[in-house]
Amino acid sequence: MDKPIKDQYLVSGFLVFFLIHGMQIGIGILGFQRGVVKEAGYDGWISVLLAGLVVHIIIFCIYLLLKRANGDLISIHQQLFGKWIGNTFSLLVCIYLISLAAIVLRAYIEIIQVWMFMDLPTWVMALIAFGLLYYVVAGGFRSVVGLTFLGVIIPIPLYFMLLMPLEFAHFINLVPIFKHTISEIALGSKETTLSFLGFEILLLYYPFLKDRQFTQKWAQLGAFVTTLVYTSIMLISLAFYSEEQLNKTIWSTLTLYKVVQLPFLERFEYIGISLWVLFIAPNIALALWAASRGAKRVFNMNQRIALFFALVAVTAIVILLPTRQEIGLFGEWVSNFGFYFVFAYIPLLVVIQTVVMKFKKGSKGHENSRTM
Amino acid sequence: MKTLVRCKILLLVCLVLLTGCLQTRIIDEIAVIRTVGFDVDGEQGLNMTVSFPTFLEQGEQNVQERDVINANAETVKGARILLNEKSQKPLEFGQLNTLLIGEELAKRGVEDFIDSLYRDVSVGNRITLALVDGKASEIISGDLSGGEQTGVYLSDLIQQNMEMNTVPTTNMHEFLFSLYNDARDPFLPVLTIEDERIGIKGTALFKDDKYLRILNIDDSFILKLMTTPTKQTSKQFHLDMEEEESIVVLEKIFSKRKRSLDRSGSNPVYKIEIDIKGEIIDYTGKKNLEEENLVGEIEKVIEEKIAKRSKTLLEEFRDEGMDPVAVGEKYRSTTRDWQPQVWLDTIYQTVEFEVIANVEILSSGAIE
């Protein structure tokens, strides 16, 4: 049913570390603190840890699904629901990925508009991004992985800059821990969803990994590093801001960069925002690649054409979201869909798959190992 | 291949053309505001004064002058529009480094005004805030800086005094941190005009966002010891020992403080332990500093002075219902049932204080 991917298109297994980690770190990290603190107060860092833990479990589920099906999400859907229903579900996921790419791009453009160039029209940035992203994604999966790799390596110094606000840290804010109830902390975890999303694209690029059965440790490590980064930033923010101040600050991480002062540079956040494109670009590129790959598998069409349509859709969505409220609303939709897709639908798929496999074993023996 | 090259050329052309799309901000064509002052205007109004350097382009020397403009409005942004109407070049707040608040306005509450600057992303987080004894516009428009430029002069003056001298350190971020903290109240340095020069007068204490009263320089030093660890401060002490009165000046004062809250008794006891290390650089007494015990005695007298005054101040703060030392923060960190209102109304009033000061004099200069 599924043609195996040719050897020259595969990437080394350990690169899944960069794919998972690079895809998770993106736009959410700039301001995820506010939502968490609204629910869980100074215990917000526990929420972040908790969310990270759940992500590990979901990655385990994803590997379970993929190993059993030996294919990608589209083949899983087809195996479980048949061609028509399965493809419809796959298409929904593609639309979700396009929306994810669009919201990330729009949120980044908004930051540029608020922080750097007030009079920058959205379409200019969208157009520049169009060209860049088409160029990257049309180069195939390997070039997207290359960009993701660089997108993880190059901005590492930005993390160290976040240690400088510790000059004003009041760690007394954090004690006593567990002041909030478990349900408040769990609600806080739900708020971090958009920041953790992205790893589920593993469902689509899994067949492109060499020795794919043995890559789970790298994927888990990638997610672990993400959790570590988020928890540290959360701890720094909680010590740096007071609770109400954090509630007021939309881009808390960017505001952290505002106090970084170097002898030759008074305001570091402008460098930070400009370099942030290195976090953003791989995010969008990978989501677009996955969306176009999904469309290719569903409709049997040329991936470049699918990519072109996906990019047009992204650009259209970006231009059609002019205000903060609309961006927020759309972001909430995407985040909610992503939340249920990742944290409810994927475990559900595992259950369905188990049932279907048992059923098939009963009737046809080892028939379902025929794929690949 | 050819189409690819064409595409690339088109992309380059686009990039070159698109760079013209945004409004540029060339340094000669904008007014870079260095100092902002807020004052009261009538019942509701705000009087906003800004100063920015101007450059005389012609002539042999590059003369740097400064210009001050002033406008009245209800809000900060409203005043900004009016200020722009009076300005030759567009005003930019990106290099703002000092914000002065007039006494009258501070009594009315400052949250809205500082919040408005916090909302503006072009304004830095580290800008220096100060209260003015009188009107902020007087300090900004008066030519009181001894030939130096007001823009840098004021922030340098305040920063220098915070680092090397006796006022507690603060900036916009720390002010907002304390303001939006339910267990802490902010403070600011106070500027005043004295003999045609600008100087530091003490520390302004706030309850929430309203200015309550001023602490003089000596008490500011005590507050500094109780709030922040200090480095390199200098301070003069009057010693009343049995035999004679003398003055001793300590330099390079490094201090640390440890706070604890004992809730075992009927009333919570807030204990603060201040460790001070310093060097004597001046001493007016007749005795020889090399003499045994004398340094020890001086240490003891200073310890007592600091401990006594600290305790009095803490009790005063408690009675006035404000909390610049962040006693509440310590209480919050030891309770699971934190209710800011209950703390402020009932518990804080029952807190008792205990201050221990440990002074260690490391050396006493190059002469006997």
From TrEMBL, chain A:
UniProt keyword annotations, A-Z: Germination, Membrane, Transmembrane, Transmembrane helix, Transport
Membrane topology, as annotated: Multi-pass membrane protein
Localization (cell): Membrane
Gene Ontology BP terms: spore germination
Gene Ontology cellular-component annotations: membrane
InterPro entries: Spore_GerAB
Main localisation: membrane
Keyword flag Membrane: yes
A Pfam family it matches: Spore_permease
Source organism superkingdom: Bacteria
Membrane-crossing residue ranges in chain numbering: 9-32, 44-66, 87-109, 115-137, 144-172, 192-209, 221-241, 270-292, 304-321, 333-356
NCBIfam families hit by this protein: 2A0309
Family: Belongs to the amino acid-polyamine-organocation (APC) superfamily. Spore germination protein (SGP) (TC 2.A.3.9) family.
Name of the featured protein: Spore germination protein
Source species of the chain: Alkalihalophilus sp. As8PL
Upper taxonomic lineage: Bacteria, Bacillati, Bacillota, Bacilli, Bacillales
From TrEMBL, chain B:
Gene Ontology CC: one annotated term: membrane
Localization per record: Membrane
Main localisation: membrane
Spore germination GerAC-like C-terminal domain boundaries: 201-365
Membrane topology annotation: Lipid-anchor
Keywords for this protein: Germination, Lipoprotein, Membrane, Palmitate, Signal
UniProt-listed Pfam families: Spore_GerAC (PF05504), Spore_GerAC_N (PF25198)
Gene Ontology biological process terms from the UniProt entry: spore germination
Domain Spore germination protein N-terminal: residue ranges: 25-193
Family indicated by similarity: Belongs to the GerABKC lipoprotein family.
Protein name listed in UniProt: Ger(X)C family spore germination protein
Upper lineage: Bacteria, Bacillati, Bacillota, Bacilli, Bacillales
